[in-house]
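Priority: medium. Attachment 1 of 2:
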């Protein structure tokens, strides 16, 4: 069973590394429910998780999660002590703390640019995480940490990427920033403006029109030559007739 779980974890990690560019050390955001489950099942998160993910991991939480654990009192005192050992990531709720689940959701907005894992036993939070592409989900089952398989949302996102129909939002922003840094954005804007300007007449069309005029001009000159030739023939014929008459006389 242990080898099978490890095999599935390696496969799922390969999916996130290849398609969403997850790199070590892996950033794992934990909530109070995960810490409580680890305490109940005697799981050493800091020691066991890096081996399961096959790479270095940074365990972290937020101030909102810590305040939520404090508010719940003695029942989750042990979970609070575990969470306090982890790094605290800054969230946007300094003045007005929110629930731990709401805070963790806010940390993975806009395409999860910081490549966070979410570790939780909260089923409602887990369902919301699965609706976001590129967010690995960790939970505890039967005294074992488990990395969930990629959600249908993540699979669909990767399929669109493979058909070149979608670019991640954080990549779009980085591309725009690079263009602005190199001054390419202004050059592209100037090129587009130049294309919109009305151009002059096509020189090829002018040449064609000139050819038509010359052809039309050649036709009357040919007719004139024919008339002159007929006139010369008539003059010659009349001269010959007059000569013949003189000889007869």
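Attachment 2 of 2:
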């Amino acid at each position: 069973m242990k080898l099978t779980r490890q095999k599935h974890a390696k496969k799922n990690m390969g999916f996130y590394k290849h398609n969403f560019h997850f790199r070590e050390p892996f950033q794992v955001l934990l909530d109070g429910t995960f810490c409580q489950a680890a305490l109940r099942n005697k799981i050493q998160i800091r020691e066991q998780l890096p081996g399961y993910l096959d790479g270095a991991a940074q365990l972290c939480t937020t101030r909102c999660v810590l305040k939520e654990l404090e508010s719940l009192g003695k029942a989750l005192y042990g979970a609070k002590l575990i969470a306090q050992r982890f790094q605290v990531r800054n969230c946007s709720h300094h003045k007005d703390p929110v629930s731990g689940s709401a805070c963790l959701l806010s940390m993975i907005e806009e395409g999860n640019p910081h490549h966070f894992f979410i570790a939780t036993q909260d089923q409602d939070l887990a369902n919301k995480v699965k609706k976001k592409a590129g967010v690995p989900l960790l939970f505890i089952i039967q005294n074992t940490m488990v990395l969930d398989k990629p959600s249908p949302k993540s699979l669909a996102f990767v399929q669109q990427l493979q058909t070149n129909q979608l670019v991640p939002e954080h990549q779009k922003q980085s591309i725009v920033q690079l263009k602005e840094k190199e001054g390419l954005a202004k050059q592209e804007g100037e090129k587009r403006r130049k294309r919109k300007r009305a151009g002059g007449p096509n020189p090829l069309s002018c040449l064609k029109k000139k050819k038509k005029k010359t052809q039309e001009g050649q036709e009357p000159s040919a007719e004139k030559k024919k008339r002159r030739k007929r006139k010369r023939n008539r003059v010659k014929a009349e001269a010959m007739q007059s000569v013949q008459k003189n000889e007869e006389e």
